[in-house]
Amino acid sequence: MQKGQNLNTVFSEICTKQNIDLETKNSKWLVLVNPHAGGKKAERVWPHIRKTLENRKFDMHCVFTEYRGHAIKIIKEAIVEEGFTKIIAVGGDGTFNEVINGIFNQLRYFSTEIRLGIITVGTGNDWGRMYDFPDSYEEQISIIANGKSFLQDVGKVYYKFDASATYRYFVNIAGMGYDALVAKKSNMMKEKGHSGTMAYLLNLVAGLFQYNNVFLEIEADGKKVFSGKVFSMNIGICKFNGGGMMQLPDAISDDGLFDLTVIGKITKFKVVKNIKNLYDGSFVEMKEVSRYRGRTFTIGSIPHSTLFLETDGESLGHSPLVFEILPRAIKLFVP
Hints:
Layout: H1 7-17, E1 26-33, H2 37-55, E2 60-64, H3 70-82, E3 84-91, H4 93-104, E4 115-120, H5 126-130, H6 137-146, E5 149-161, E6 164-170, E7 173-177, H7 178-191, H8 197-206, E8 214-220, E9 223-236, E10 240-241, E11 245-246, E12 258-264, H9 268-273, E13 289-294, E14 296-301, E15 308-311, E16 314-333
Parallel strand pairs: 1-2, 1-3, 3-4, 4-16
Antiparallel strand pairs: 5-6, 5-16, 7-9, 7-15, 8-9, 8-14, 9-12, 10-11, 12-13, 14-16, 15-16
Helix pairs in contact: 3-4, 7-8
């Protein structure tokens, strides 16, 4: 940015170079459907959802994802090339995550100019738990139709994938260590057609015999806050992951801060004994648990030791990790 230029000027110049019409917005709703969400539940219930949307007079264009990561490409192109600013995602937390990344990887509109609704048809639907989303699709569609939106924080994490540095946006929770291992095992089972809370619990127990604690150093807003062996960690904006586990019980989704929960070195027996306490958040009272808040977090593991990462249930890469918060950066329809 040159001296004397403001952000809007720079943004307009970028868009002009890319031949983007800044004035014309598409009045239709883009409805993105992941037919594989919820163990292909989305494919089964989509005709009912579509009929309900039509009955509520939604003027819409419907698209379907075909592979992992496809929603990112669809959303980015739909915004940039066709001017969509009203989006509905039909799927689970992973679908929602891809839609968010499509929005934040385009330059035609600021993220807060885009309105986003979700119809939760996934396995865990943990983002929706934060806002007490109703189970009824009719009620979820009414939430969007009512037009009441909420500006929520968004997280951005920089990480390594193989030897390359990359990044990902997220709207719920990022898990590391043991949490990331369980997510990876669960995603592998999803690809084979096995999903749901029971599958997650099976992986939660089975993973105990494969995982070793990792020595980490953690900085919050530039200050070292933790150094030691870690079993599992969660950092995020909302409260739930893993199909209803309250990993961040005090999280506030628009306060401009991450919540971080660190479970230090702990015995496998104690993990099994306290699994039930993950669902009401009371596990944070254990002596092995530390909690922090901040706008930025830097997490590094010692050489020859790797900390793996997942965001919103999607398995990604590994340490070193840097987290940044984007305050009130996405406009969502919530109850």
